[in-house]
């Protein structure tokens, strides 16, 4: 149990060293709320130890700054700190939602399945594999004009199949 004199000494200690202690902790943490919590906890610990209140001004100041620094270090090392992330960090580090891309690929694959095998092969070769018309012609042993024709009609059929599935352009 503390004496009323201890409360007065603690109040005077906070008045003399509190602002500098807050600036110091704010500099260490870069977090105003955490800095205020650390300063309050430091003062509580000083209040719990009457011997600190009886020290000379320089000794009390050194003790307060040491305790505050140790509290900041303990907080940084805590398991809570390693698991918790503030909202701003979460927002910045959020991974883009890929569900639209997955649904689009399912729609396109479904629409491709409706094409004839001849049309599907040249469309996939040209647009997914990146082959040119002469390369497709050589790969499938068909004339270049046939490749162009199949691409034209295949893309037209693909567009219609996608429109039937609700994809519009």
What can you see in these coordinates?
The protein is mainly alpha-helical and 169 residues long. It has 2 domains: 4-85, Rna Polymerase Sigma Factor, Chain: A (Orthogonal Bundle); 99-164, Winged helix-like DNA-binding domain superfamily/Winged helix DNA-binding domain (Arc Repressor Mutant, subunit A). The protein is 80% helix and 0% strand. α1 crosses α4 (57-77) and α2 crosses α4. It starts with a helix and ends in a 5-residue tail after the last helix.
Number of distinct helices: 10
Q: Biggest β-sheet: count, sense, barrel?
A: none
Mean residue pLDDT: 82
Q: Helical percent range? A: over 70%
| Backbone structural class | mainly alpha
CATH architecture of the largest domain: Orthogonal Bundle
- What separation lies between the terminal Cα atoms? 78 Å
List the secondary-structure elements in sequence, H or E. Answer: HHHHHHHHHH
* Uncertain stretches: none
